[in-house]
């Protein structure tokens, strides 16, 4: 296989990638994908939108249903149809949380809707019904649902909802003396105990996740130990070939030169694999603790493309446009893995589309250093674009593990950098990586 690269001046260079070197690079890519799976294990971020949707469904169904139950099946002293309808309307957008996941207004809106529809409405109806047993239990259920979200989110919602409910109760013509103080005071220690239990359960879950992470780190360490021996053997074999090939092919200079280049590439790849294993094992415990230092951006991009095991249509479709040396703060090897993932995804899209090329451009702008990675293959629809960086989301479905772009975002964010994507379906997909200036 051959990879042909175009530099900023439009010149093309071709590099031979013999089979053994290509095999080494494929092994390195496999190690990266396995280790990345171990790094991204935060299930909370994966199911957050699903929780919002489920609470939205509970509100849309529950408010009208329980209005009928408490009004006609088991009549309560007080019900309010308009309050129920308002809460139902507020919960409707939560059903479409996935579609709105990229909207900045979704988190504050979810907090507002859930606060009004649960603690506010439930506590107000509890007060209006004189602290009845049915509504006391309903308030506890609302607390349990709330604390399945982030603890700060739940606490803010509960306290603000309770304050607003008391205010409305007074504004509705009741005095503070009309509050059923005895049931309320009896309810407070029960609610406090329920919250304490839920917080302890959350802490226990976090401990289990940490144990799982440590277990996977130990497993990676074991895998790394097993890989070091064959890698050492390959390194020794490459050294032996390098020493003997000149004499064995003394009369065939072109062939000797090609094989010597292949052996040199093997040695380089073996060293790179060894370094990557060590780096990923260390980062599996906490990828944000990776060593950060200034590195030259263009050099990492060129090396990543040169090392990539291109199939058809090959590296001749990759064009790079880089300025002079640009140094940014981060980790060169991890950034190489980020570029590898973007390159792999783009080539898969080009293969599916049967067309397209890849342009990589680096620009130093007043706000930041920008790396633009663009492919002109399939593009993605808007609903897919909104979920591009969600862990375990893949497009097309079942194409992969869905962790690659989440890995890229996680790594870049840990350096104070960022990544975003824009796309037009059937035209292009463009990723923009932003590095803060090193003196910021």
Keywords for this entry:
440 residues, alpha+beta, Heat Shock Protein 90, two-stranded antiparallel ribbon, 61% helix, 12% strand
Largest beta-sheet details = 7 strands, mixed
Structure annotation, total helices: 12
Which stretches are low in confidence, meaning pLDDT under 50 for 5 or more residues running?
1-21, 27-46
Q: What is the strand arrangement across the widest sheet?
A: 2-1-4-6-7-9-8
Keywords: ATP-binding, Kinase, Membrane, Nucleotide-binding, Phosphoprotein, Transferase, Transmembrane, Transmembrane helix, Two-component regulatory system
InterPro entries: BphY/WalK/GraS-like, HATPase_C_sf, HATPase_dom, His_kinase_dom, HisK_dim/P_dom, HisK_dim/P_sf, Sig_transdc_His_kin-like_C
Organism: Cupriavidus oxalaticus
Pfam family, one: HisKA
Account of the 3D structure:
- The chain crosses the membrane at residues 55-75, 81-97, 109-127, 156-172, 184-203.
- GO terms for molecular function: kinase activity.
- It is an enzyme of class 2 (transferase).
- The chain is of the alpha+beta class and 440 residues long.
- Among the domains are: 2-16 and 288-435, Histidine kinase-like ATPase, C-terminal domain (Heat Shock Protein 90, 2-Layer Sandwich), CATH 3.30.565; 43-179, no CATH class.
- 61% of the residues lie in helices and 12% in strands.
- The protein is built from twelve helices and nine strands.
- The chain has helices spanning 19-39, 43-73, 81-91, 106-128, 133-146, 151-171, 181-248, 253-283, 297-307, 332-353, 382-385, 404-414, and strands at 2-6, 12-16, 293-296, 318-321, 327-330, 358-364, 369-375, 418-424, 428-435.
- A seven-stranded mixed sheet has the order 2-1-4-6-7-9-8. Strands 3-5 form a two-stranded antiparallel ribbon.
- Helix 3 (81-91) packs antiparallel against helix 4 and helix 7 (181-248) packs antiparallel against helix 8 (253-283).
- The longest helix has 68 residues, at 181-248.
């Amino acid at each position: 296989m051959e990879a042909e690269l175009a530099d900023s001046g439009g010149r093309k260079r071709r590099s031979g990638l013999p089979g053994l070197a290509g095999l080494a690079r494929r092994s390195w890519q496999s190690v990266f994908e396995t280790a990345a799976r171990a790094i991204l294990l935060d299930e909370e971020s994966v199911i957050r939108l699903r929780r919002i949707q489920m609470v939205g469904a509970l509100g849309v169904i529950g408010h009208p249903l329980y209005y009928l139950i408490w009004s006609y099946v088991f009549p309560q002293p007080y019900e309010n149809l308009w309050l129920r309808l308002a809460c139902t309307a507020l919960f409707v957008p939560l059903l479409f949380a996935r579609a709105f996941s990229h909207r900045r207004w979704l988190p504050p809106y979810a907090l507002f809707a859930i606060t009004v529809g649960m603690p506010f409405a439930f506590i107000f109806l509890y007060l209006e019904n004189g602290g009845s047993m049915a509504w006391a239990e309903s308030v506890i259920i609302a607390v349990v649902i709330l604390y399945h979200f982030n603890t700060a989110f739940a606490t803010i919602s509960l306290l603000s909802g309770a304050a607003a409910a008391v205010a409305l109760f007074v504004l509705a013509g009741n005095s503070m003396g009309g509050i059923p103080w005895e049931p309320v005071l009896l309810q407070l220690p029960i609610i406090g105990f329920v919250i304490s239990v839920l917080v302890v359960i959350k802490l226990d879950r976090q401990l289990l996740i940490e144990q799982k992470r440590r277990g996977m780190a130990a497993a990676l360490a074991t895998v790394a130990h097993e890989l070091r021996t064959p890698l050492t053997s390959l390194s020794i074999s490459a050294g032996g070939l390098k020493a003997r090939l000149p004499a064995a092919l003394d009369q065939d200079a072109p062939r000797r030169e090609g094989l010597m280049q292949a052996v040199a590439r093997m040695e380089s790849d073996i060293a790179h694999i060894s370094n990557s294993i060590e780096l990923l094992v260390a980062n599996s415990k906490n990828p944000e603790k990776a060593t950060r230092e200034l590195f030259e951006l263009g050099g990492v991009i060129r090396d990543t493309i040169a090392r990539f095991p291109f199939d058809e249509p090959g590296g001749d479709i990759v064009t790079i446009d880089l300025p002079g040396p640009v140094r940014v703060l981060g980790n060169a090897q991890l950034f190489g893995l980020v570029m590898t993932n973007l390159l792999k995804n783009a080539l898969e899209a080009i293969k599916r589309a049967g067309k397209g090329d890849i342009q990589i451009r680096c620009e130093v702008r007043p706000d930041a250093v920008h790396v633009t990675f663009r492919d002109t293959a399939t593009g993605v629809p808007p609903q897919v674009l909104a979920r591009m960086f969600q862990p375990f989301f893949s497009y097309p479905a079942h194409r992969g593990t869905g962790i690659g772009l989440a890995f890229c975002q996680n790594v870049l964010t840990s350096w104070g950098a960022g990544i975003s994507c824009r796309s037009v379906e059937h035209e292009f997909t463009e990723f923009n990586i932003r590095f803060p200036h090193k003196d910021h």
